[in-house]
Every structure is written in structure tokens, then in C-alpha cells.
Amino acid sequence: MGRAAGVTAGLTVGGSLLGLVRDQAIAHLFGAGAGSDAFLVAWTVPELAATVLIEDAMALLLVPAFSGALAKGGGAVRALLAATLPRLALVLAAAAVVLGLAAPAVVDVLAPGLADPALAIACTRLTAVTVLTFGLTGYLSAALRAHHRFLPPAAIYVAYNTGIVATLLTLHGRWGVRAAAAGVAIGGALMVAIQVPSFVRHVHVRVRPAAPPRTRHRLGLALVAPVLVFTVSRQAQVLVERFFAAPLPAGAISHLNYAQKVAQMPMVLSLMICTVTFPAVSRALAEGDREGARRRVERDLGLACVVVLLGAAFVIACAPQIVEVLFQRGAFGASDTAATAAVMRVYALGLLGQSLVGALVRPYFSAARPTWYPAGAMGVGLAVTVAVDAATVGAWGVYGIAAGNAAGITVTAALLVRGLGAQTIAVGVRRLTVATARIAAAAAAATAAGWCVAAALPDPSAALAACCVAVPVTFAAAATAVGVPEVPYLLAHLKRRLPYAH
């Protein structure tokens, strides 16, 4: 698990850095205006597809299914493949075609009043293919992770962002922002291609079962429906943001997008822990080891909170410097930096909720049995987001939209924590709450230290370098002082690993 987490962390960082290069290229070439807004509306399609088909729904459904099949033997794995993969590919291909044909209606629904709907429609038709490629990517990733093959799934975003950047740099002069949409389509195909060799080599696809399975598979509508409703509701937060931002001045959607992409990096890194251990939790539940699953989940939640709150402290303290260093060049000016940084700080207030939702939903679905509780919790959080956005967008603009996102996801996280013991694995909710409060106190101290350091250094690069030392050192000292158990554990693990680094 440690090696798998290390590989996943390294490739996740690599994919995130390439994602930043992608965003930098888009900001440099197109700034934060009508063209980038049109592309970002079209990008809603792959963002939704990624959440439903790669990061959440497909993994939540198929990792437990493959883990249970592996517990029964290779024949069960082959039967699961035969029953699911061909049908899924046909459904996804048909959905991609329908989406391309319906692009005008999709753009009108997603962003009424957009400055350049024709450009958004053209980009949407290019990105529609990701419904097929992302679905196949999610299927292959889930199967490989259940077989404890983590390298190819961890590399998918490296391949994806490489495809986008290469296409964008090659074709932007001829196609404009459409080149970014074409890059999304090419990147999606590369995500599939990078996993196929390992899938063929390690998953039981070569030998057909002696006879078609006559028993009903566990991937029925009763299991699929609550997972889909949860994931679509979660991604609907982005749809709500762009709906409310579309009538605002040009660039509003772009400011929200850049701020969210950077602010969510700590959340992505924190969830890599749960991504690696999710198959182990599912396997433990399939084998009846509920105590082992509980211990694993509690450890994962604690470590995820440490990572995301440390990252949130850095983001809040250094938001203007981060945005200036990453994006302020070309068509992206100082006013765009100021607006994006302010939005990013508001988004960061919801990072703990984002991370907890991503971590907590996995235990709910680990046992591969129907439960509507996460979907209900996400529905309540989405309603809060809509209410806050509607009440504040007129006075606060993009800042009110970001605040609605943070409020809604935090409510969802609180509901998932409250219901976890009754619904699936009886974790110590009170212990988790106390531990999170201690980590938050350490993060507050680290934020104050980083803010002071950043304010004292006028050069943004120097300020970021200094904060890279001040924030984690202050966090570690404060966490040790208040008794956060995960920090000594991580430091001890690091000391054990250091001799091997030479």
C-alpha cells in the first residue's frame, strides 16, 4: 500500500502539474474573456464525465464488484467482464453521439446568455467524445485497481493533459480555442490507450467462461441508481456555478475555473490515499472483516484531513502569489490575478468538505449494496449551494458563487459523517470530529504564519518559496502541540524511508 500510494502520489502530482501547464497555456493564449468562457462551458461535459465515469460512479460501482469477483475466483471476474463491458461501451458510444447532436440545447441550458454560444456549441461537439473515452477509462481503472495494479490508472491524467497541451500548442493559431476542445478529445483517447496493455495482461479477459452466467449480477439498477444520482448531484455544483456566472461580465466563469482548479489540488492529493486503499476496504468487507475495514477507513480519514488542511492553509495564505506566478502573463492581467486569488480563498474554505465527501462516500459503497443516503446528503448540499448562490450572486458576484459551493459541500460532508456509522462502517464519529478540530487549529496557525511571510516579501516567487517552508513547519509544530496523531505517524514513516532515498 505504501509503494502504491507513493506511485499514485507521484503521478497525481505529475498530472496536476501538467494540468497547471494546460491552464497556463489557455490563460496565456486566451486570457479570461468570451472565448475562454465558451470553451469552459464545453468543458463542463468532460468535467461531468470525469466525475461520473472515472472518479466516482464507475469506481464506486466497479471496484467493489471486481473485488468481490476476485474473492470468488477468475471465473467470476470473466463473467463480470462479459456481462458489463460490451453493453457499457455501446451505451457510452450512443450517449456521445446524442450529446454531439444536442450541443445547441446543452449550451443553452448550461449557460443562458453566454456571449459566444456558437463557439461553445462547436467546442461541445468536440468534447462530447469524452463520454465514451472517459467511461472506458473509468472501467479499466476500476478493474486494474481491484487487481492492485495502480500505475496505469495513476498515469491517466498525465496522458490526458499531455494530449491537451500538445494539441493546443500545435493548433491554436489555426483553430483558436477550439484547439483546446480538440485536445480534450485526444487526451481522452490517450487515457484509454495507456491502460489497455496492463488490462489485457493482468485482468482475466482472454479466457471466456464455459457458459454465460445465469445468476443476476450485483450491478443492477438498485445499486447503480443511487451512485449515479450522488455523482451527478455532486458535479451539478459546477453546473450551478456556471448557470449563475453566465450573465455576469465576461471572464467570470474563467475566474471561477482557474480558482477552483488550483484550490482543489490539496483535495486531489488527499484523496489519493483513499483511492489506493478503496480496493482493500471493499475486499475486507467482501470477506466479512468489518473491523479491519473500520480501522482502515479511520486512518484514511485522518490522513486525508491532514493533507487537505495543510494544503488549504497554503492556498489561503499565498493565493495572490500562486495565481501571479502561475497565470499572470500574456492575456491574463493583474486584475484577473486579483479576482482569481480572491475567489480561490473563498473556495479554500470548502476544501475540507470536498475532501471528506470524496473520502466518506467510498465506505458507503464499499459493500456493493444499495444505499440512497449519500445521494440524499448530496441533494441537501446542492440545495444549500443553489440557495446561497441565488441570495449572494447579485451583491457579491463570483465570490457569492464560490461561497455557495463551500457551504453546500460542507453541509454534505457533515451529513455523511453523521450517517456513516448507521449506514455502513461504525467509525468513531466523535474521535473523528475531535481529531479534525485539532488539525484545523494547526492549519489556522500555519495559515497565519504563511500570510505574514507572504506579506513581508514583495517578490511572489520568493514569497512562495518561503511559504513552502513556513507553512508546513508551523503546521507540524502546531499539530504536535495539540496532539494530532497522524503527524508523528507521518514523520516516523518519513524517517524510515529516508535511508532508502540515497
Strand content: under 5%
Would you count the extended β strands for me? 0
Low-confidence stretches: 206-217, 497-502
Question: What profile does the largest beta sheet have?
Answer: none
- How far the N terminus sits from the C terminus, by CA atoms, comes to 22 Å
Structural class: mainly alpha
Helical content stands at: over 70%
Shape: globular
Order of helices and strands: HHHHHHHHHHHHHHHHHHHHHH
**Chain-averaged pLDDT:** 83
> How large, in whole angstroms, is the Cα Rg?
22 Å
Treating each run of at least 4 consecutive H or I residues as one helix, how many helices? 22
In short:
The chain is mostly helical and 502 residues long. The protein has 22 helices and no strands.
